[in-house]
């Protein structure tokens, strides 16, 4: 039988906590759903999946999160939801 000393136990425990925390963040980001046009906040912000504003879309907004090139990405305005990179809402701010 292996005896785990106190120091090893704490190292393993700390690694497990960090792994679970990082994994939880990744799972929450992965589990986000695409925003629906009938969502109350989307309606209030006049969100649309396809921008009709010349040169303005979610992909070039300062509030968009995630990596460039993805079709659906998180947005600071709509927590827990994904917006279309080609979308637009009234909170659009030019990316600097």
TrEMBL record:
This protein's name: High-potential iron-sulfur protein
UniProt subunit comment: Homodimer.
Function: Specific class of high-redox-potential 4Fe-4S ferredoxins. Functions in anaerobic electron transport in most purple and in some other photosynthetic bacteria and in at least one genus (Paracoccus) of halophilic, denitrifying bacteria.
Entry keywords, A to Z: 4Fe-4S, Electron transport, Iron, Iron-sulfur, Metal-binding, Signal, Transport
InterPro entries named in the record: High_potential_FeS_prot (IPR000170), HIPIP_sf (IPR036369), TAT_signal (IPR006311)
Signal peptide: 1-31
Similarity comment: Belongs to the high-potential iron-sulfur protein (HiPIP) family.
Every High potential iron-sulfur proteins family profile domain range: 29-96
Gene3D superfamilies named among the record's database cross-references: High potential iron-sulphur protein
């Amino acid at each position: 039988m292996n005896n785990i000393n106190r120091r090893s136990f704490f190292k393993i425990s700390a690694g497990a906590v960090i792994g679970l925390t990082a994994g939880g963040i990744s799972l929450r980001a992965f589990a986000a759903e695409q925003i629906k046009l009938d969502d109350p906040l989307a309606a209030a912000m006049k969100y649309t999946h396809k921008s009709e504003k010349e040169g303005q879309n979610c992909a070039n907004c300062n509030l968009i999160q995630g990596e460039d090139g993805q079709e659906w990405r998180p947005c600071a305005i709509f927590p827990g939801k994904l917006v279309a990179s080609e979308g637009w809402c009234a909170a659009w701010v030019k990316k600097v």
